[in-house]
Amino acid sequence: PVETPDGAQARARSLPAPVTDVAKLCVCDLLVAQCDTNCCCDPDCGAEDFSLFTACSVPVVTGDSQLCSQKAAVYSLDVEANPPERIFKLIDQVNPSIFCIHATNYKQALYLKSPEIPTPENFDRLLDKFGGSTFSAEPDSWNLDTDAQNPPDTNETYRYEYGAPVHTEDAFLRLPSPVVSSWCSDANPAGFLVNQATKCIRSVSVEKCDSIQALSMLFYINSSILASAFQVNITVQSIVVQSQNGMRTLLNSSDVLRLPMVLDGLCINAVLGVNYHITHTDTGEIIEAAAAFVLGAISKETLSIEQSFEISFTQENTQPVPLSGNPGYVVGLPVRAGFRPQGYPFPAAFSSSNKHSQLTILQSTSTQDCLAAQGARAPVLFGYNMISGCKLRITAAMKCQPLAQTLLDVLKGQSFPEYVASFGNSQAQDVLDWVPITQLHISEQMISNPLQSSCQIPVSLGIEVKWTKYGSLVNPQARIVNVTATITTSTLKQLPSGRERIIPVTSSVVFTDISSPAEPGYKAWPTINIKLPFDFFYPFV
């Protein structure tokens, strides 16, 4: 309804009086009962002090900068006067921003409201109010039926941002999860680009299994996802039937919905797990959605079951790459790596020799034979220092150059990467999220050998990964900032014919946390041994 001018004036007169007098505010007044230099709003300063000022350190003093209109205290110096004088003005300042507060009519914001402490008596009420995915902190009188006033436009284009709930025609895409306890709550919305995996407990009854919505496939696919001019239907990708002893069987056809029903005292076709897979464009528009189901049977004795839910996102025309964290690396997950092929401005996935796009090292075998260990690789796990190796038996019949190339392939693999992802979820198109691998070569003398004196073979590969804690101190994220791969070669010399030697070949990985504090005894900053006045930090402690 349109508010009349008289009503607006009456409402303005009923507003609380301002609690801040800008004429009495002074942020540069630090000394007690003393005049602060160049502090024009300091009440301890007089005309003699102002005559010595060179400028006003705080020329304008305001209250809440978000208000559309407010009083402002303006201070300046009249240097032409003899002696110089301070000039004080109280003006009305207008906020040029269109997003400003016209009136502070929300009285609850003028004081601190103590939160309600949960008790056995009010726990259920607080859980109903705050236990959902969203809740309102505004008074009940402010709850307006916005959906009725602003009906959704069916032709609106939905381009999602990271973490935004995936909307459907009735609400949002559900990803059940435990809230307070381990019991399932269906109020958890799936966030865009947020890969999740949850498990929760669901109360069941065989007699009512056909009427429990959470046990039916329709509950998870009957709502279409809001995308662009059309709605994206959730298709059934696959159906796996799990027997009571845990054996799973993939059904050949997933076109027919299998709804829960009671048969011979069992509730069959009950949903035990759902795996969503969402395909989107690079602009954040969802174009395809599929769900894979795990169905099972529930006996009469069963009062509750454990359900598992998972959702993953893949950009169109790209291959899904397993992540090692979101965003920072998780200890124990593989270090992601890649190389920059010709014609591409960003690191790309590995070739078929390493389909998982991971940094790898030589994998030790039971035979410890370097020539037989070719192709055996182990992924480098973040945070784990690793060492592996093999033994090389050199005879007089071996040629130097083929042997050196073979050992290099054993140490580095067929396709050694050029870049390492700085974060566990770095995307290939984000150029700045990829750290180049610095490759060094070190040569050292070795014991005599039956090959040519000028021949050198690689005998070790050492990889050092430097990482740091990135982001908030409360929840720091592991970020790789530097990777160095050092190849050590040894010179081979002639031995009498018929002799042979065994040379150890090693590969190692070391992780160094460069964000760690200085070691004891190391003074990172100089120490100043002085005594400050007792009121130096007044009024602060």
UniProtKB/TrEMBL annotation:
Pfam families: DUF1619_N (PF25752), TCTN_DUF1619 (PF07773). It comes from the Eukaryota. One of its GO terms (biological process) is cilium assembly. Residues 159-315, 325-513 form the Tectonic-1-3 domain. Keywords: Cilium biogenesis/degradation, Glycoprotein, Signal. Belongs to the tectonic family. Part of the tectonic-like complex (also named B9 complex). This is TECT1 protein. The gene is Tctn1.
